[in-house]
Design a protein that fits this description.
two-stranded antiparallel sheet, 10 helices
Length: 271
């Protein structure tokens, strides 16, 4: 009886969940609020800074912050108001992330692949796109619905995120639960973030063609050995991703040129 009552309560909560939509109009169901996700993002970021090796070269974080600041100025006001912060981590794998609440991290190994500010803007624009599209909240909500026996929503209502909540957030950002359900959504998220990030960088005065170059560099750096089939991957196929980014260049070049003409000329340097 208790299990049935709980299931009914969970189903009711899902039906009453906030319905939202992405900037492109795709409908979303969110079982957690922005403020709850921001708390979790901040807690996760603090945990990373405490546990992971930070870069001992301050210029790396300053460089990332410069790119982030230029991109954030092009966001809608509600997203500009977040306390955006960039931190470089001394990790060799080329990677970056952005968490709810405006916390951005990059591994210094990424700077061997993203060789200039435009390419770095392609990566960080993509990650900021995830935040703007509320992808983390959507994935946490999907996991709650996929694991119908676990009432995670109540755990997120506290004033501070617990260690379990941090782990849940990172798991939601990193891997899906079911092939055919969460993984396709993850690939959809990646494609949305690609489009959002490439437009954002053009609006900020970064060359959108660099997004193509960046992913070509990434493909060469990581190679294809051991890569799972796309159906089992949380990311789009690299070749298909590059093709899509190339298609967007023509429509974004006028945006980029207008931004440059208006004085948006970022000068972010890795030194």
């Amino acid at each position: 009886m208790l299990r049935i009552r709980f299931s009914l309560m969970f189903a009711s909560a899902a039906l009453l969940a906030a319905c939202a939509s992405t900037p492109e109009g795709r409908s979303q169901v969110l079982l957690v609020s922005d403020s709850q996700m921001n708390q979790m993002g901040l807690a996760a970021f603090q945990q990373m800074k405490a546990n992971d090796k930070l870069s001992v070269v301050p210029a790396k974080s300053v460089y990332a912050q410069c790119v982030v600041d230029a991109l954030v100025r092009e966001l809608p006001p509600e997203w500009q108001r977040l306390p955006w912060e960039a931190q470089a981590f001394a990790i060799k794998e080329p990677n970056a992330f952005a968490l709810p609440g405006g916390k951005v991290g990059l591994n210094t190994g990424l700077l061997r692949v993203a060789t200039d500010q435009d390419q770095l803007a392609a990566v960080l624009g993509h990650e900021i796109g995830h935040v703007m599209y509320r992808h983390a909240g959507e994935r946490v909500s999907q996991q709650q619905l996929a694991q119908a026996g676990v009432a995670l929503a109540g755990a997120y209502a506290g004033r501070r995120a617990s260690g379990d909540n941090v782990n849940t957030l990172m798991a939601a950002l990193g891997a899906g639960v079911q092939v055919g359900v969460l993984l396709p959504f993850s690939r959809k998220h990646e494609s949305e973030a690609d489009r959002a990030g490439q437009r954002l960088m053009a609006q900020a005065g970064f060359d959108p063609r660099a997004a193509v170059t960046l992913w070509q560099n990434m493909q060469q750096a990581t190679g294809s050995d051991g890569r799972p089939p796309e159906v089992l991957s949380t990311h789009p196929d690299p070749a298909g991703r590059i093709t899509q980014l190339e298609r967007h260049v023509a429509e974004l070049m006028p945006v980029y040129e207008a931004a440059r003409a208006s004085g948006k000329r970022p000068r972010c340097r890795d030194d």
